[in-house]
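seq:
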Amino acid sequence: MTEKGEAPPVVEPRPDERPTDVTLRALLQRIGQQEILAELGVTALQGATFEELLSETARQAARGLRADFCKVLEFLPGENRFLVRAGVGWNAGVVGVATVGADTESPAGFALRTGKAVISNHLGNEERFRTPEILAAHGVKRAMNVILQGDGKPFGVLEVDSRSDDDFVEHDLAFLQGAANILGMAIERERYERFLKAAVDRHEVLLQEINHRVKNSLALVTSMLRLQAREDDDPRVAERLAEASARVNAVARAHERLYQGDDVRTLDLGVYVEQVCKDLDEAVSQLDVQIDADRGIVVATDRAVSSALIVAELITNAAKYAYKGAAKGKVFVRVTLSGDRVLLTVRDEGSGLPHDFDFQKGTSLGMRIITAFTQQLGGEVKMKRLSPGTEFTVALPADHQP
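struct:
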């Protein structure tokens, strides 16, 4: 992985490559794009502000498509124009200031009005719409637009632009739509939050309803990822989709408990982690997950979600490495309170890790999630080699007790 925990650079085929080389590079590009979407999801889960997520989405979308520019266009109904709310690659004075027409004579306006994604690989020859001045001034030759949904109506458009003569393809459109969907969920959340602040008397009921809707939406995403994983012919892509499904499902379980409870600010960590472990036990037939969790360890909701994701990643790692090739393997999970620390322990009886393995230097997305969330929670991870197996213990501050 590259600096700052980023996914590998998306590679571009060379003109002299054989078809098999081009296919491999295209596959690597698709995998790189999937990792970028996972990174964006992690950024959203880690509590990035709305403005930070807008900027990060623009940056990562441009990177994933090898494009020079990307912008988030917010629709201004009263003016029938788009505001360049966030972006990357543009000259000074564009982001936060410049506007683009929202009529069907512009690529973004055409996408918004027709409700369909737009790919234009030859703007100079377009007959559907004109080339906006902002694109012409930056030498843009091709553009791709997808709708940004939010709270039942379009927030605007996510647009990627490039100076190169290459073509955007349908796979690129799927990646851009995935980035827009993640951002769309954040847009919906942000709008709900603003509404809730103005409805103090009803905020508890509304929060429960939001958690119910988010849980249902995330459950739908989980089902779609699992279906895609089963249908994908490439085992590497299928494996990544299955891992993404487990992460989304862990968050969905948190929202399920929130809308069923009276307090949306906290969760019983033991009960929550136990449910996540049961889901993993059912989803991964290779594993027999046994959970021993203390009750009454009440922590803030965001800390509970991060803690559960750490446990889920450690269980997934056990399936991938400890029991690789095995028909069945046991994983033992414990959640306990020791003084002012919460201990999350995940142990397996597998073949063990390589002697030179250093989890603090791990480059996989799973290890980076474990490290990032542990640091965010102010905790530490310890690894112990057993005979047989490996044990990971994550010690976290107990930030909230009843």
